[in-house]
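Morning!

This is the sequence you dropped in the shared folder:
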Amino acid sequence: MSPAETAFYEAAAKRFAASALVYRVRSVVHLENINDRWFWQELLQRYRPGKYKFQGGSRNADGKLTSGCTQCLKYQGFLSARFFVCIDSDYRYLMEEQNINAANGVLQTYTYSWENHCAFAETLQHEFRKLCPEKADKFDFVSFLSMYSSAVYLPFLYLLNTLRLKRRGLNRIDFHSALAEHFEVCDEMNNGKAAVIRIKQKLDALIDKLPAHFMNVDAEKSRYEAMGVKEDTTYLYVRGHCLYNYLLALGNHLCLGTGVDFEAQILKRSLAMGYREMRNIANDINNLIQ
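The structure's back. Tokens below.
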């Protein structure tokens, strides 16, 4: 940023922090979008209870109301316990971007976005079975997400290698396009195997275009396993919107005639705790900048 922009965001951060006293809240929290509020509200109340004022956007240096991760991160260096930001990790965590941490006033999802947390397999199936026991005997979300993760795991490593080394390889847009699968009638058969096959075929076609020996597969597996990406957890790290939208369409179909609102009562149920990515968020909240 230019010196003028830096001064603008420093002054704006001070105003936000001071406004916490005016609003009588513990902190003002800047989000990428106000739709993220429910996720961060639940976690903050669990690990840092208090009243919060959430901002879904703010003015940029030109006076235009702006949202998104880039806008949030423009306040880096000027954040505090009274004014901090919460963002989706996208691929920033896996790319090990500097200064994206609680000590600098930035909370992140560790998964691609908050939508991935809604897809945590065991909890998703548990809630589905609790509300739709007869349907749950015919479809298993744990099995579906296991197949899904296995199918996208290796292509995802190719994408991460491409992004990290900033070279020609697996294009991010193409990868996301392959994941953006539409629900089709009968996809619920065999725990969604047909949908996984369609996604795998599109991803395999992308991999086939890459040169032989494009990367050291074992080295990439070791590198990202240390960060939490394994064959059975990849669904937590790929683009959350793609997975969430498919699960929503699938779940709505499965819940037809039950009176159950799949999104409100199952996808956006009380968030699961205890798995690695959620523990990371909890630790960050507990260690938020003082």
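Headline: The CA atoms of residues 26 and 49 lie 9 Å apart.

More detail when I'm at my desk.
O.
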